[in-house]
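Final report, Chapter 2: Outcomes

The project's central promise was a pipeline that accepts a single protein chain and returns its three-dimensional structure in a standardized token representation, suitable for archiving and comparison. That pipeline is now operational. To close this chapter, we reproduce one record exactly as it appears in the project archive, with the input sequence first and the structure output second.
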Amino acid sequence: MTIAENTAGTLSGIRKSGAHHKLLAFGSLIVLVAVFSVASPNFLQTNNVIAILQATSVNGVLAIAATLVIISGGIDLSVGTLMTFCAVIAGVLLTFLGLPMVVGIPGALLAGFASGALTGVLITRLRIPPFIATLGMMLIYKGLSLAICGAKPIYFNDTPGFTDISTGSLIGAIVPALPIPNGVLILFLVAFGAAFVLQRTALGRYTFALGSNEEALRLSGVGIDSWKIAVYAVAGGICAIAGILLASRINSAQPAIGQGYELDAIAAVVIGGTSLSGGRGTMLGTMIGALIISVVANGLRILSVPQEWQIVVTGSIIILAVYTDNLRRRGA
């Protein structure tokens, strides 16, 4: 049996084993919605549902970026501050330089791709472990964001249409009964695009192969360093999309807002069934995980649970999800 056949068989078995976890995550989401609906009549009100979807749009896009990296066998602790950094770059281009959105938005996306590629270079060329490399980049992005805007928010009041990127509703304009924000639509488009890349392109196949058996891939003659850099670059570009969505929603680039988002993103990835050891994961599972994180946060807030206990609950969910992943891998 060739290396390619062996890898294909392994990935097929992994996908089948992940189906049970996705069903379990989806069932958990339904149970949470039911519990919070009974506990508070305000939970399923239209405004609150839209608020949940809006919160999921940012964390979900970040989780997509984290999913790509984790499937490849890496980790990225810088997704939150990279999101902020790209939002600040958008603020500089659109507000400070007065460029039109057709220039400023691609400029922020390019900054995300370049930043992600730089992280990939640190990991592959300098042989810095992903945990340390992305931890260092997390601090660098945070410092650069504060330095570029002088530790003050950048507002987009002079950029017409910028807030519509996230808070407008193309679907609502067509079907008034469904005022789904554009940010949610962008989330699903990004998720669909990432799923297509994972399942239908060489980048996706090599992403799974890197996480499943990097040494076998190396022995087959594949330039794994180039593919790793590509994975981190794409993830960086997706972080830039999250930054634009967040800045659009609050109509400003807040230089100190990003740190901590990486925890929710990684939690959503793990809850959705992506293995921290790499080689296994789906975008559908990540979307379910992101919704679970948003529903839990929103439900606890509606029930007036203190924020410190909300953090405790989120941490407990992460530990439970990782423990479940360990049990699943032992069984496999």
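Archive annotation: The chain has one domain: 3-326.
This record, like all others produced under the grant, will remain available to the consortium after the project formally closes.
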